[in-house]
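Aim 2 progress update. The chain analyzed this quarter is reproduced below.
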Amino acid sequence: MIPLIFSVLLAFGYSPSDSSWNLVTLAEVPEEAVLFAELAAREGGRTVIDFGSLLEVSGNFSRAASVFRVAYGSSDDESIREWLHRRIKGSELLDNVLVIVTRISNTGGERIEEVSVRIPLPTAHPPYQSLEIVTGAFRADGSVMEAPVYRLEPGSTAVLPLVLRIVQVPFTYRPIGSDLESRMGEDGLDGIAGMMRSIQVPEEPEGPGPCLGLAMALRDSAAAGGVALSVTGGLLREPGDTLVFHAWNLLLPDMLPLDVSLFHVDSMRGIAHCPTDVIPLWDLESTEGHEVSAYFSEPDGNLSVSMEASFLHRSVESLFEVFPLSLTRYRR
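Predicted structure tokens:
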């Protein structure tokens, strides 16, 4: 049957590349679509990337990574090579140690005492991710983690590390069956996709990025239709393994991701797709959308807070420099 379809397409001058995408839906990537993309890829160029993309969003990650490597080796466009590098990383096993460093600085002129620093509690995201809290300055307290800073002199900074072990496999929920779609509300996947399309992504967002506001908007819109979504925070892997904080939604209790900001530029990867260049860490509902908060009683105190993340192989020296200070400097 498949060779006959190929023959008909070629006889009438249809594009195999166009035919592959015409068969794809948000819920499913049929085998025929992948076969058409493979046929088109023999022509080289952009169709090779299309073939890798269809392999990835259909869940054939190992083969997708191989195709992306071929495209990477034949491209001289730096922006395309960066995109392909992310797709290769996102299609491979992630097994690494993550170091999250929180910094609290006293930017005022008075000493500040008894500061409580809170971050969300990192949790695993099965079936595609396991997570272990190895060590650090924070201790779990319900749905958050806390670290005490007993005093901060003017101009001083407390450095508070947290070390996590992350094991994550690339995963997709496609094909999305009727049972899973029934938990997406009365209109199913089409209804969720319609909500995501209706949320406008600002062209010039205020602050570090629009992702948190978009995730909260989708959560509220879905709740009005009786669909429970969480707001999840985590990391994006950029070229050079730079890690950037990001926020999106998960359909509960299935952990199916919905990313409004990504959906507007790549709908197939914005729904039901779990590559390993997107690393979920924690539920931001417990901290009202904040990755880090500092609580203190001095009415005239001024604190600045920041958080950064890196893989252990990029921060071994700083880890061993930071830990003795972080764990002992403010101990009574």
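The longest strand covers residues 94-106. The two ends are 76 Å apart (CA to CA). These observations will guide the mutagenesis experiments scheduled for the next reporting period.
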